[in-house]
């Protein structure tokens, strides 16, 4: 009886976010784990760019979570990037905005829910530097609680929300090493600060997250790579101000391929999760399309 009550309590707190990156409030957050890969640290020349992501995530287990857990997420995330001709501190200034559109299906502890709605709006600004084969980015982004959200209740304990109902501030750094021999070593790292969910009084812990990619250019248009992501929660989640001792972590790895033409590119990858603690475990497939106007 006690075990069942614990499982239902966990299920009652589900508020799964637009992009399937899991930890914090029983598995929900907004960082797009695995979305970036090749040349992640290199900003383009001044102009307007559309980055469109498609992500499919499936998880069939949740360590220390409710029995019968299944999650399927399909998300389309258009991201508009404007690179200006302005330079500050030697770096090129740019801005971006992303608005996820999400179809989410969730089952846990014998209950289920589904939803298709907007996720949380992401806004950011960044600076980019270039020096020969080396490229760097420094950015700050905010995730605004604009997505669809309904608080869980006794009558509806499992809720497939596409918004988190709390805001996040996230500093980001990224780096790419891309010499003329075709090698591409890239990484993107971030640290997230979350405020409290006013409806559940749950404050998700701070965390490190990052994407990585080691690739090689096979021809003028094609690159192959090994890619993945890592997530490590630095501070524990809190409920009503009390530390509940829950920290999440995950490591993922898989193959990726990119085709690049003059003003567009498409990148595909499949990533499998391992070393999971306090969060769902699954696999994800991603497509990333970049178009220069």
Folded structure, characterized:
This protein has 293 residues and is mainly beta. The chain has a single domain, classed as Beta Barrel (Porin), CATH 2.40.160. It is built from one helix and 18 strands. It has a twelve-stranded antiparallel β-barrel with strand order 1-2-3-6-7-8-9-12-13-16-17-18. The protein has a four-stranded antiparallel sheet with strand order 10-11-14-15, with no helix packed on it. It is globular and about 60 Å long. Mean pLDDT is 89; it is low at 1-23.
Q: How would the blueprint of this fold be written?
A:
Elements lengths: L1 H11 L34 E16 L7 E19 L2 E8 L2 E8 L2 E8 L2 E11 L2 E11 L23 E10 L5 E12 L1 E2 L4 E2 L3 E11 L4 E12 L4 E2 L2 E2 L5 E12 L3 E14 L2 E13 L1
Antiparallel strand pairs: 1-2, 1-18, 2-3, 2-4, 3-6, 4-5, 6-7, 7-8, 8-9, 9-12, 10-11, 11-14, 12-13, 13-16, 14-15, 16-17, 17-18
Task: Give me some keywords for this one.
single chain; 293 residues; mainly beta; Porin; twelve-stranded antiparallel β-barrel; four-stranded antiparallel sheet; 18 strands; 4% helix; 59% strand; disordered N terminus
Structural class: mainly beta
Helix fraction, binned, reads under 10%
Q: What does the radius of gyration come to?
A: 19 Å
Quaternary arrangement of the chains shown?
Answer: single chain
CATH superfamily: monomeric porin ompg
The chain-level mean pLDDT equals: 89
Structural shape: globular
Described by strand count, sense and barrel closure, the largest sheet is: 12 strands, antiparallel, barrel
Number of domains: 1
Q: In total, how many beta strands?
A: 18
CATH second-level architecture? Beta Barrel
User: What percent of residues are in strands?
Assistant: over 45%
How do the strands line up in the largest sheet?
Answer: 1-2-3-6-7-8-9-12-13-16-17-18
Assign the CATH class.
Answer: Mainly Beta
Might you state the CATH topology name? Porin
C-alpha end-to-end distance? 59 Å
Number of helices: 1
- Please provide the ordered H/E string of secondary-structure elements: HEEEEEEEEEEEEEEEEEE
Poorly predicted ranges (pLDDT <50, ≥5 residues)? 1-23
